[in-house]
Amino acid sequence: MRAPVYALLSLCLAACNVEGYDETSEEIAAANDELIGGQPALETQYPSTVLASGCTAAKVGPRHFLTAAHCVDDLYTATVEPWFGPGGSYAVSADNTPPISPYVNLTIQQTYIHPQWIADCAAARAGGAPDCGVNVLNPGYTPDLALVVVNELSPTIPAAVVDGAAVAVGDPVVATGYGCETPGGAPTNVFKIQNLTASASSILNHPGSYVSGAAINDVAASYVLTPGYAASTSYASLCPGDSGGPLYRQSATDLIVVGVNAYYTFPSAPGSNPSQTNWHTRLDTSARYAVTSWLQALGVSVINGGTAPTCTDGVQNGTETDVDCGGTCSADCANGDTCSVNADCTSQSCVAGVCQPQSSGTACSGLCTGPTVFAGPSYNSGNLGTGARCFETTANLTGANCGSFASGRTFEVNGTAVTCNGSNIPLPAKRNGGYCFEASAGNQAWAYFSTW
């Protein structure tokens, strides 16, 4: 992943405790990390935030990850980078300290960049701009937004919701990110958070700022503004690696996203100081560009006010896997509804993301015939050859991987397709008490999978 000048955010955080949390052994251990200051997040804090392909992102739907446009765009062609196209690999992790593990390896269905960014990028390049970075952000104050939609579910990562209500000046918010710890430094992959307060547009009127006059209000119409570490050591600054990270409303119980880390201003030359201000792309219905409706049309969980979704509001949102059921709702989902795990379904049978009637068969019943049965959990298939293969086990597995599958050859676990590039693969819930591994016919003969 490239690291352009405007790539943002690891929190240059002030040394402080997060209000509402007592000091624990985990916090004490985290405090020994080499930090400028600030609060490394606990495992339980803002778990919808993930490290993803060099940037930070937030899960905001069953298969939806919100990040910055400049994390996934081709800097020169006003398009999505090829490796973020359909079929590409998108590895995410909600772990909060390095070495980051485990990653969940997902397959990209489609990556969407906000159309205003694409239009402004194309116009900038046509006008002679060398690239679509600062040359897009500065003149048009374009929404720096992208949405990565994947094929697989990731039930271990809870989904946040996007709030369509505007953030008012003075509202308490929480900045999050996985980026660097010193200006111009490399990302450290430590997940950090900081309580901040949304600021008025006048915060942009400071020595060294490149925003002045009417442009100050233009920026505020597109971005939530927060104070940076250069303004006071009680604040936080964005830094490379934090780009795309979510800005949350402060809440003890709900995961409500109100912005996406995008840009900043400095008291002097970038790289020599932390930022004076931070810019987070606005997601509300009053923003300069149509953002909320764009996200909602793509399947993102959106609420229009400051109240978190409920399990009786008639729409799929929050942790629900279908309308008002699954996730943390007390109501289980009916057969045919979308699910993530068996517990989401009345039937207690979730197959390939859909609730199914209970079956008295085995893991591979209805999926393939004549499976090779192994006791496990430690198993290596060896070379699979070029024909279709089927394997079954009732073992309690903790992980699996697969690799050397040529283009066009598929591999499924309990009916769900996974990407086989040598990395670990997500394991779905057991099906009829076990796991069914299916390889379609095709190249290469030395394709394999293993479990443990």
TrEMBL record:
<dbReference type="InterPro" id="IPR001254">
    <property type="entry name" value="Trypsin_dom"/>
</dbReference>
<protein>
    <submittedName>
        <fullName>Exported peptidase / protease</fullName>
    </submittedName>
</protein>
<dbReference type="InterPro" id="IPR043504">
    <property type="entry name" value="Peptidase_S1_PA_chymotrypsin"/>
</dbReference>
<keyword id="KW-0378">Hydrolase</keyword>
<dbReference type="GO" id="GO:0004252">
    <property type="term" value="F:serine-type endopeptidase activity"/>
</dbReference>
<keyword id="KW-0645">Protease</keyword>
<dbReference type="GO" id="GO:0006508">
    <property type="term" value="P:proteolysis"/>
</dbReference>
<dbReference type="Pfam" id="PF00089">
    <property type="entry name" value="Trypsin"/>
</dbReference>
<dbReference type="InterPro" id="IPR009003">
    <property type="entry name" value="Peptidase_S1_PA"/>
</dbReference>
<dbReference type="InterPro" id="IPR018114">
    <property type="entry name" value="TRYPSIN_HIS"/>
</dbReference>
<feature type="domain" description="Peptidase S1">
    <location>
        <begin position="35"/>
        <end position="300"/>
    </location>
</feature>
